[in-house]
Every structure is written in C-alpha cells, then in structure tokens.
C-alpha cells in the first residue's frame, strides 16, 4: 500500500488529470458531424432572411430543400436567387406556398407533396416568425395572440406533422428559431420574448422525448440579424430597445445560417453566435439538455452554488439523468 502512495506524486496526479481532459476533449471534437448531402431539408420561412440563407447553405452542401412561406412570388424569387448563387440543379429546390397556421390537414398534404420528390425530411428548420416590439401598454392583446400563433403555434403545428415521421424512421434533426430575447427578457419585447420563451420550453421537452429515436433538437438563439424581418421590427422598437440592441451590432444572415447548421450538425441544443451569444447561453443555460461535457460542467457548477446538501444531491441526479440521454427512463418504458 505504501508503495502505491509513494508512486502518487503531484506530478503523477497532474498527468492523469491532463490525460483525462485530453481524452474528453478529443472524444468531443472527433464526434462525426451530420451531413446534409443528398438529404431533404424543409425550411419554413424559407423565402426570406435567415431561412433563405439556411436553404442556400444546405444547397451548397449538396442537399435538397423545400421552401415554405406564404407568398408565392417571394418563394419563386428565393428559388431563382439560390439557383443563381449556387449554380445548383433547379430541381433540388421545391417551393410550397402556405401558412404555418394552416390546418394540420393542409400542412400534412404539403409535407406529403414535398416528400414525394425529395424523399423523407431529414431536417426541419422552423424559421417562420416575426417580431413586433413596443412597451407593454402600447402592444394590443391581438399583437400577443398573433405573434404567439406564428412564432410558437406555427412551429408546433409543422413539427407535429414532421416529428412522428422522423420517429418512425429513427433519424432526424429539428431546428427551432428562438432568439436572444428568448433567453432573457428585454425591454420592449413582452410579447416577442414570451413567444420565444415558449419555444424554449417546447424545445427542451421535445428534445428529451425524441433523443432516444436518434432525433436531435437545436434551438437557435441569434442576435439581431440583417434581414427584411429586422427592418420591419426596427420600425416598432421603442428608444430603450434600440439602445439595448445597438450595443451588440447586427450579423449577416449567412453567418447565422452557417453557425446554426454547424450546431445542428453537432447535435448541440443551444445555438448562438459570437462571444456575447456564448456568454448569454452559458449564464442562461438553466437545465437545458446537455450536449457536451462543457455544458455538463457549466450546469453543474452553476447549480451547486447556493444549494443545500439534499437539493445538491437531487440536482446531481437530475443532471446525470439528462446527461444519460434518459436511456434509463426509456429502457424502463420498454420493459
Ligand atoms: N432577424 C433577426 O434579427 C432575428 C433575431 C433573432 C431571432 N430571429 C428569428 O429568426 C426567424 C427568422 O427571422 P428573419 O429575420 O429571417 O425573418 P424574415 O426576414 O421576416 O423572413 C421571414 C420568413 O418567414 C415567412 N413567414 C412569415 N410568416 C409566416 C407564416 N405565418 N407562415 C409561413 N411563413 C411565414 C416569410 O415569408 P412570407 O411573408 O411570404 O410568408 C419569410 O420567408 C424568426 O423566427 C425570428 O423571430 C430573427
């Protein structure tokens, strides 16, 4: 026994820790990202802004896209623009006019049609959404209802049609568009932030349900992005909201699209952009699904601070349970 203790020098311990850290790091970075090559990606809101940029990136990678939005002309323009930009086969882009608030029957018919030529949907990207800002007293109840209906219920409806198909096939990726205003409440966004917070809850719960079926959920939380949607939103922003958003600049839609796709490929739950975004997702991580060792360490560290011994034990159990991809729960269900 004494010989064993003699061997455990400080240097030895440091080397062991370094080896473990390196092994974890290597395992994390050597994870094979998903590929969209030859895959069908369905993009709601695909005729404008971030949705169009995402479709362009998927086409560049050799995927097939279906663009879904309300305006037929906007869809045709988007298709022509992507073909011109990427020199792709025009048949790799299909367009479907419709509203995310259409009935489930109508949405099912559209999804059926999209899968006839392009094959099963591998990734669903829900970008259709918009923001109207304003002080609480200046926003009408109808503003709240309309935004909730497109940003939240629209995403729920389209996912309701697509997710069961993914579950049957045992693969898929669901991307939902939240916002930095869905991580922290910001002046002027009582309505918009509420819709994006709702999406976060939906995304967290859905992620836990579908993970055993090899389906990942990514919640994109971009900052202000240069899109037609932002131009419209800026017209409604109170002075205070402008001051807050001016402090963090505006990103090109292509940057947001690339980052979102990279995170979706790595099956990361929270996707964001830049240093500020990283800080925000870190401090607002709550008990979000853990998709990396880094997130596990952050969540554990953050939650241990002010907890008594008992709740710390409970917390550790919950974190480890989520980390285990809820396989325990799932295997119990199977028995
Ligand atoms: N831009 C930003 O600064 C920013 C920041 C954070 C989060 N986001 C979120 O990112 C997403 C995309 O934003 P964006 O700025 O790219 O928007 P955008 O430029 O306004 O484009 C929105 C797209 O969605 C479609 N759309 C709108 N309502 C729809 C509906 N009811 N049914 C089907 N399609 C609909 C639009 O086409 P039609 O009008 O023809 O239907 C268009 O193709 C939104 O969810 C937004 O909240 C944006």
From TrEMBL:
One Pfam family name is: adh_short
Q: Pathway it belongs to?
A: Lipid metabolism; sphingolipid metabolism; Sphingolipid metabolism
**Coiled coil ranges:** none
- Keyword Oxidoreductase listed? The answer is yes
- GO molecular-function annotation terms? 3-dehydrosphinganine reductase activity; nucleotide binding
What EC identifiers does the entry list?
A: 1.1.1.102
First-tier enzyme category under EC: oxidoreductase
Task: Tell me if ATP-binding is a UniProt keyword of this record.
Answer: no
Query: Which CDD domains would you find in this protein's record?
Result: KDSR-like_SDR_c (cd08939)
Q: Its GO biological process terms?
A: 3-keto-sphinganine metabolic process; sphingolipid biosynthetic process
Occurrences of domain Ketoreductase (ranges):
39-226
Q: Which residues cross the membrane?
A: 12-30
Q: What is its main location?
A: endoplasmic reticulum
Catalytic activity of the protein: sphinganine + NADP(+) = 3-oxosphinganine + NADPH + H(+)
Provide this UniProt record's keywords sorted from A to Z: Endoplasmic reticulum, Lipid metabolism, Membrane, NADP, Nucleotide-binding, Oxidoreductase, Sphingolipid metabolism, Transmembrane, Transmembrane helix
Task: Provide the protein's localization.
Answer: Endoplasmic reticulum
Q: Name one GO cellular component term.
A: endoplasmic reticulum membrane
Record family assignment: Belongs to the short-chain dehydrogenases/reductases (SDR) family.
Instruction: Give the protein's function.
Output: Catalyzes the reduction of 3'-oxosphinganine (3-ketodihydrosphingosine/KDS) to sphinganine (dihydrosphingosine/DHS), the second step of de novo sphingolipid biosynthesis.
Its recorded name reads: 3-dehydrosphinganine reductase
Source organism per UniProt: Artemia franciscana
């Amino acid at each position: 026994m004494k010989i064993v203790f003699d061997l455990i020098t400080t240097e030895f311990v440091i080397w062991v820790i370094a080896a473990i850290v390196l092994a974890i790091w290597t395992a994390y970075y050597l994870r094979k990202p998903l590929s969209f090559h030859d895959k069908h990606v369905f993009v709601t809101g695909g005729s404008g802004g971030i949705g169009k940029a995402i479709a362009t990136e998927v086409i560049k990678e050799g995927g097939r896209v279906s663009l879904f939005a309300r305006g037929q002309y906007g869809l045709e323009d988007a298709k022509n623009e992507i073909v011109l930009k990427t020199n792709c086969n025009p048949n790799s882009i299909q367009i479907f006019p419709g509203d995310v608030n259409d009935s489930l029957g109508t949405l099912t018919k559209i999804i059926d049609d999209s899968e006839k030529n392009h094959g099963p949907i591998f990734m669903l990207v829900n970008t259709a959404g918009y923001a109207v800002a304003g002080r609480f007293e200046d926003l009408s109840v109808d503003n709240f209802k309309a935004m909730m209906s497109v940003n939240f219920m629209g995403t729920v409806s389209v996912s309701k049609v697509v997710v069961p198909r993914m579950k049957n096939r045992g693969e898929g990726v669901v991307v939902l568009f939240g916002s930095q205003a869905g991580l922290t409440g910001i002046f002027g966004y009582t309505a918009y932030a509420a819709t994006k917070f709702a999406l976060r809850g939906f995304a967290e719960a859905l992620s836990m349900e579908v993970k055993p079926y090899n389906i990942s959920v990514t919640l994109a939380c971009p900052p202000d992005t240069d899109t037609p949607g932002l131009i419209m939103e800026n017209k409604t922003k109170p002075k205070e909201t402008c001051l807050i958003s001016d402090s963090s600049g505006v990103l090109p839609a292509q940057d947001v699209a690339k980052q979102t796709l990279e995170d979706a490929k790595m099956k990361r739950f929270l996707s964001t952009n830049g240093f500020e975004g990283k800080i925000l997702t870190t401090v607002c991580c709550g008990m979000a699904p853990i998709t990396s060792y880094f997130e596990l360490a952050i969540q554990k560290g953050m939650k241990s601070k002010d907890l008594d011994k008992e709740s710390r034990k409970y917390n550790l159990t919950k974190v480890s349970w989520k980390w285990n991809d809820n396989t325990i729960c799932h295997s119990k269900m199977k028995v």
